[in-house]
């Protein structure tokens, strides 16, 4: 029986070391499940190796949570690691807590940038309750909250909020738009119009039918149909 225990331990140790060295969590989890079954059956598993493998899985899972998980998922992963019977590397656990503080502080800063009183008030209260935001960010949020809570003077008469568009009552619509209303629904075609086609042998074109024309003709027509002939 001693030989069987030794062979089983060596096999599990080899698999565990390979999985831990290559970072293959699923392989290691499979090995742990198999080892636990064998341990339950006849106690032929090296308990120290099993504990080491379980600890490695818990630590590696928390490392992955630091990199990939958002705030709420990371908080749950930290809670699971703290409540787990398996030992998690202290350095990794501290890193996860620091990351959680960073995410909570960034979320509060984003709320501060919006400068909305009620949402910021709720965010500050939540941050105080959870105790995750760093002290400097919390002080800035409380200072901004105090500013936003100060009563503001009423706007001057005749002004409107920038989020609203209201037609002033003192403007006479008929007087302002009346001279242009005779053009409503009417279209016309210009008698003269010219385009310059850069890179063409004869770049000046009639804007109506795109026919090539000489520059002298274009300038002459433009000068005849403007109050102040151009000098270019």
User: What oligomeric assembly is this protein in?
Assistant: single chain
Span between N and C termini? 108 Å
Order the strands across the largest sheet as they lie in space. Answer: 1-2
Largest sheet: 2 strands, antiparallel
Written as H for each helix and E for each strand, in order along the chain, the element string is HHHHHHHHEEH
Low-confidence stretches: 1-7
Q: Which structural class best describes the helix and strand composition?
A: mainly alpha
Report Rg.
39 Å
Shape label:
elongated
Mean pLDDT comes to: 77
- Count the strands? 2
Q: Note the total helix count.
A: 9
Helix content: 55-70%
The amount of beta strand, in percent, is under 5%
Keywords for this entry:
232 residues; mainly alpha; 62% helix; two-stranded antiparallel ribbon
Structure description:
The structure is a single chain. The chain has 232 residues and is mainly alpha-helical. 62% of the residues lie in helices and 3% in strands. The protein has nine helices and two strands. The protein has helices at residues 2-22, 25-42, 47-68, 71-83, 90-114, 117-130, 135-149, 173-177, 215-224; strands spanning 194-196, 204-206. It has a two-stranded antiparallel sheet. Strand 1 and strand 2 form a beta hairpin. Helix 5 (90-114) packs antiparallel against helix 6 (117-130). The longest helix is centred in the middle third of the chain and has 25 residues, at 90-114.
